[in-house]
């Protein structure tokens, strides 16, 4: 697959297109008991095109949701991240899911400043 673009690589959509090509979205049938679905639902939205949520999983202790987000353009980025999951606390955690420190969250929205190529684990409680 050849993807042409104008300008620099960081100004293009080549990286996100490659990611989507190599890891296509998977859909699974619902097994819940609810009879209606919300009009929209997003595990994570971000204001920055160079941030990717790579992992969404239950925490190993079963009491939280783990999100792993990475910056892929080697640019310092202030990311505003929003989730529709019910969350009252957000922690930056290490890769073993140990809480390092809490960051403020309001109505499911929180901010974090990413370094270039940084991978960050967020623990949502």
The run of helices and strands is HEEEEEEEE
User: What general form does the structure show?
Assistant: globular
Give the fraction of residues assigned to helices: under 10%
How would you characterize the largest beta sheet? 5 strands, antiparallel
| Tally of contiguous helical segments | 1
Low-confidence stretches: none
Averaged pLDDT: 87
Strand order of the largest sheet: 2-3-8-5-6
The counted number of beta strands is 8
Class derived from helix and strand content: mainly beta
Distance between the termini: 41 Å
Q: Report the sheet-strand fraction.
A: 35-45%
Radius of gyration: 16 Å
Describe this structure in words.
The model has no long low-confidence stretch (mean pLDDT 87). It contains 1 helix and 8 strands; from the N terminus they run H-E-E-E-E-E-E-E-E. The strands form 2 sheets. Strands 2-3-8-5-6 form a 5-stranded antiparallel sheet, with no helix packed on it. Helix content is 7%, strand content 35%. The longest helix is centred in the N-terminal third of the chain and has 9 residues. The chain is mainly beta.
Strand and helix layout:
Blueprint: H1 14-22, E1 45-46, E2 51-58, E3 65-71, E4 77-82, E5 90-93, E6 99-103, E7 109-114, E8 119-124
Antiparallel strand pairs: 1-4, 2-3, 3-8, 4-7, 5-6, 5-8
Structure at a glance:
The protein is mainly beta.
What brief labels describe this structure?
single chain; 125 residues; mainly beta; five-stranded antiparallel beta sheet; three-stranded antiparallel beta sheet
